[in-house]
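We recall that each integer encodes one residue's backbone shape. We quote one record:
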Amino acid sequence: MLGALALAFSLGAAPVLATTPPPPSAVLRVGVADGAQPCSYRERGSWSGLAVELWQRVADQERLPYVLVPGNSAASLLEATRRGDLDVAIGCITVSPERLSTTRFSLPFQESGLGVMTRRNQLELGASLLRALVAPDLIRLLLAYVVLISLLSLGVWRVERNGSNPARWEVGRRRAFALIFQVLATGPGTNTVVVSSRGHTLVFLAYLVRIVTASLLVSYVTLNVVRGNQELSNRNLRNLQDLAGQRVAVRPGTVSDELLRRLNATGLEPAIQLRKLDRITQADALLGSGAVDAVMADDIQLDYLLHQLPHKRYGLALRQLNPQSQAFALSPALSDNQVNRINVALGRLKRDGVVTRLRQQAMNKS
């Protein structure tokens, strides 16, 4: 009887022991996917990107030995992490409700929404440039410049009565004042309108007004004209339902892919035609050749691509769709101590502004 009970106990305990996750290895297996600029990508044999550098900071601070394991996509990394084949999956992995119910995540390190990039209509591009040139901010800046130079010209007129005495110039009083205004506004010829020390002081002030205004104008043109008002690239695309019947490129297994598939499943007619996007940098070739009508991905990825492209043929028709947190995925086999160390390091790096600096560096990297 005792032998039978012992045998039954051992048979009943076996399934419990089989489902217990194995202890994590001393060297963490960290999965990373290529082609997800600026979060993670392989360049000249080395891994780069915001998520890669952030994980390196975490591992250095907590002295966590690890080895990078390449993966095909974020979806494959998540699946391998759930199975315990990977200890950590790094990248700008969106913590969606569907993933949260099946996957263990670290402390979120940033928030990002989804965007849709399309070709810009050349007529709309010209119209957007014209709107930028007649924007109220630019007009106010130019008016302020004219007013300041006019006041300085009036000051020169008054202080030079006993010097160059512009009121007695042969060209007449009005043309004399116009000449002073032109000289102060443009620069050349200042030695012909002033001779007094106070007059030279006013000329110097006019010089300061010119260089400050010129700097502001250059900044305005760079931000609003050269970049071409990228926010509005397609006025006919106001929501995701407007993508019906269009060919949209997405990376397989991403939140963008899942969202469009769910939208098609609601009975959208005609259905959105999904096209495979292996790397975010392929979006230029696909849109340029007319193979797709739009590209959908994280805002951070599309902003990075627009910043890197030498031309301004594309823009974001939609942005900040479904904003959600992004984090690292963690294996259930990781101990609570290891998870806590990773989260503490991420929290420290966020608090110290390191995450923000890494994001800026990744976005500006050419």
The longest helix spans residues 197-226. The mean pLDDT is 84.
